[in-house]
Specification:
The structure holds 2 protein chains of 2 kinds. By secondary structure, chain A is an alpha/beta fold. Chain A is built from 17 helices and 12 strands. Chain A is elongated. Chain B is elongated, with a radius of gyration of 25 Å. At the A-B interface, helix 2, helix 6, helix 7, strand 6 and helix 8 of A face helix 2, helix 6, helix 7, strand 6 and helix 8 of B.
């Protein structure tokens, strides 16, 4: 059995919903041992769809199943003194703690970095919050919609809108939240690397807003370069455009730089209209973009989506069909690369999950475990590792602590 | 102890545009030494134009967009079409821990810089190839840019109005791939710390986007349904949208998850009669009647500025934030209190504002210590000090157009 590059790294996750859990999923899927600490009611993701067979069971949520693969799960009520004692014991031999309580909450519980450091001086602790640990908005409430918009990522969507009559929107699914998880993972791995070369533990303050703004850096930079904010109706005109095909599918074609344009018109059989003065140069195409788009859209209606995709790519020019979940799953490319992997779960059974988007030549893990059931590993973690007896575990359960 | 998390890590960076350079930018923030291997023969396109903004620059060293992507880095200029250029690149690799490239699939092989070539000069090298569709499979040779990854990976289909077209987003997709790349490289470095073993990593940018919307893809693998785009809507929360405010193109995002938050919102709006209608009496009803609900809330929000509404609603525990433009972000008091912008001195452009690292680390603060390099800025240092070549040798290679 092949192990991942993070084999041996011990992580405690005390997070809810998407951002924090996705961060530690990245670690768990590469071999780290992640113990997910849920309050006895369970992670909110458990009450979100899609549900397998449309059964709203907390163990059948696709959102939870996806975000928590390869983790061990324990339940713990941190509002109880005993619960906090147990938490401190868990921290003793952890390398990394990732938590997402609002600023000040961990301190109130007596579980802030200072206290936990006494338990484990080499601990790396990362806190993920909407606005970070300090600053005027640090206690503001923000759900995933709010976070996406307050970082400037929504204001420019949908790109190529005809005007500003309709509202700006968020990115699809929970993409803004997975962005945060990935951003946090980079700093945590950096801190871990440093500890291994003789450094100490440390504390990391992650602001979701900052994580998302870091991704929108070009649009932000554009303001101070040009004195104008990018908007959803005046940006990115000739870079790429969406066209429709005969069978109703969409294709995105890229029109910049020149090489892209040349390959595209070659693939379309050099239709006569491309010789029009309005479309001769990049500048002219920019100036006459609306006309250009009309011509292009008429032209592409002569082809079926996949046919046009292959034709344009055969000319060395970037383009792609807009794929639905079904099309992603059924794509020959995805299949050939084995991107979807089968994972077995005690309640959900065998299902196909999106796997790793990167292949390591030597350390791609060969085995996956399904997401943890609520409190599934209480006995293993509290009993076998922390040394609580069976009787004590029963009492702790009766008291609602685990 | 030094305060650079990645002290001693050296990266030979063959990547260009954004997806690759952002990865090494993030690693440089953490203290890695990044040597950008480029050439006047094949100039990084964001040195002379910006795909995202459509701007073009007259000088290879005057692009603010390139500057933002390549802070802290060193630059050597080598003509990789010449065998001597390739030899020198290999000597840099022999001194490095990591090689990153995002050229079209097959280009590194043709240049004689494939993993198999490089592992001969540095047996424990970590090499990552970042491509649109991955290094294997029937589409492996296909070309990709940011919008392609979003489209093929399933994210574009899910982004847009319910009744509108799909959306591929902008350069942000490259930044997503770059951030994931930085994470993956760090895990390989950690593996090498432990075992001494390097390796090759094949990263598919489209798959990176698929992984970010994994639970949406699972709706298909679980229930054989493909979820559709839905604007700002949530599967159960309502209100959950952006509402027009006073001013030109100003919007507030409001999201309500609990009964308590709903009551607080009603109170802030002055408890208008309509809030007592049956149609809005519980979460399920509000979601079912969300179009009507959104219209009614907009009538209230239009009377105020987005910042006023944020304050009013946050004061009573309702999640509300403006949909900020770039200009508003740069003048926002919270953003400024945390220091989003750093100023650097660029040798050609002078003082330039750039975006700060997105993490606050207590012991090894992420750092920006210099502007992006001008093309070939570090030729003398790298070929002289690192590779131990004499000034004469270097001059000769410049004359031959190898260092170019």
């Amino acid at each position: 059995m092949k192990k991942g590059p993070l084999n041996g790294v011990k992580v405690i996750e005390c997070c809810n919903f998407v951002a924090g859990p996705y961060c530690t999923k990245l670690f768990a899927d590469l071999g780290a041992e992640v113990i997910k600490v849920e309050n006895p009611k369970g992670d909110d993701a458990r009450s979100r769809g899609p549900f397998l067979g449309d059964k709203p069971d907390p163990e059948l949520s696709g959102l939870f199943l996806y975000l928590n693969t390869n983790k061990l799960g324990v339940t713990l009520d941190l509002n109880s003194l005993k619960g906090r004692d147990i938490f401190k014991k868990l921290i003793v031999d952890a390398d990394i703690l990732v938590e997402d309580k609002m600023p000040g909450q961990m301190e109130k519980l007596g579980l802030d970095y200072k206290v936990l450091c006494e338990q484990n001086p080499s601990l790396i602790m990362a806190s993920i919050t909407p606005f970070g640990q300090y600053g005027p908005y640090c206690n503001y409430k923000s759900y995933y919609l709010n976070t996406y918009h307050v970082s400037g990522a929504g204001y420019i969507l949908p790109a190529a809108s005809p005007n500003s009559d309709r509202e700006p929107i968020k990115g699809g699914g929970y993409v803004g939240e997975t962005d945060v998880g990935i951003c946090a993972s980079v700093s945590i791995m950096g801190a871990f690397y440093w500890r291994n070369i003789g450094g100490t533990g440390q504390y990391i303050d992650i602001s979701k807003q900052e994580a998302e703004m870091a991704l929108e850096r070009v649009n932000i930079a554009r303001y101070y370069e040009l004195g104008k904010s990018p908007t959803r109706y005046e940006i990115n005109r000739v870079r790429d455009t969406l066209v429709r095909c005969r069978d109703g599918g969409y294709i995105i074609v890229v029109l910049h730089p020149e090489k892209q344009w040349n390959g595209l018109v070659e693939a379309l059989g050099n239709p006569e209209w491309i010789n029009d003065e309005r479309f001769k140069t990049q500048e002219a195409r920019e100036a006459n973009f609306d006309d250009l788009r009309t011509y292009l859209r008429q032209e592409t209606l002569k082809y079926d989506t996949m046919n046009l995709f292959h034709k344009v790519q055969a000319n060395g020019t970037a383009c792609a069909p807009i794929c639905s979940a079904e099309q992603v799953f059924k794509s020959p490319q995805t299949k050939a690369r084995g991107f979807f992997v089968e994972i077995e779960h005690p309640v959900a059974g065998k299902l196909m999950y999106p796997g790793l988007p990167y292949k390591f030549s030597k350390t791609s893990p060969s085995h996956n475990r399904g997401a943890n059931l609520l409190g599934q590993h209480n006995e293993e973690v509290y009993g076998n590792r922390l040394g609580y007896s069976k009787e004590e575990l029963v009492k702790l359960r009766e008291a609602g602590i685990i | 102890m030094n305060k650079n998390a990645l002290e001693g890590v050296k990266i030979a960076d063959f990547s260009w545009v954004w997806a690759g350079p952002l990865a090494t930018l993030l690693l440089s923030f953490l203290g890695a030494e990044v040597i950008k291997i480029e050439s006047r023969k094949r100039v990084d396109q964001i040195r002379y134009s910006s795909i995202t903004t459509g701007d073009s620059y007259n000088d290879y060293d005057a692009s603010p967009i390139f500057n933002n992507a390549n802070l802290n880095k060193k630059s050597v200029s080598l003509d990789l079409k010449k065998s001597k250029g390739v030899e020198l690149a290999k000597r840099i690799v022999a001194e490095s821990d990591v090689v990153l490239e995002n050229m079209r699939p097959g280009v590194m092989d043709r240049l004689g810089l494939s993993y198999n070539d490089l592992v001969k000069v540095k047996p424990d090298i970590i090499m990552l190839s970042s491509s649109g569709f991955g290094a294997t499979g029937p589409y492996s040779k296909y070309a990709g840019y940011a919008p392609i990854f979003a489209s093929f990976g399933g994210l574009a289909y899910l982004t847009g109005y319910e009744d509108g077209e799909p959306n591929t987003m902008s350069g942000v997709i490259d930044m997503r791939v770059g951030t994931i790349t930085a994470f993956v490289l760090l895990t390989a470095l950690i593996h090498k710390q432990k075992t001494g073993e390097g390796q090759y990593i094949d990263l598919s940018s489209s798959e990176c986007m698929s992984a970010q919307v994994g639970s949406e893809l699972m709706e298909y693998t679980m229930n054989r349904r493909s979820p559709h785009r839905c604007g700002n809507q949530d599967s159960i929360m309502a209100p959950h949208n952006c509402y027009r405010c006073k001013g030109e193109d100003k919007w507030i995002s409001i999201a309500v998850a609990t009964e308590e938050e709903w009551k607080a919102l009603c109170k802030a709006m002055g408890n208008p009669e309509w809030t007592k209608e049956r149609a809005f009496s519980d979460g399920y009803s509000r979601w079912n009647n969300r179009a009507k609900l959104d219209k009614l809330i907009s009538e209230w929000t239009m009377k105020y500025t987005h910042y006023d509404i944020m304050t009013m609603l946050q004061d009573v525990g309702v999640a509300a934030t403006p949909s900020l433009s770039a200009e508003e972000i740069l003048s926002d008091p919270h953003v400024n209190a945390r220091g989003l912008v750093t100023e650097v001195e660029h040798p050609v452009m002078g003082k330039k504002k750039v975006i700060s690292p997105p993490w606050k680390l207590s012991e090894t603060p992420a750092n920006i210590w210099k502007a992006s390099p001008v093309l070939g800025e570090n030729n003398k240092e790298i070929f002289g000090s690192l590779l131990g070549m004499s000034e004469k040798e270097i001059e000769k290679l410049v004359d031959e157009g190898v260092i170019y």
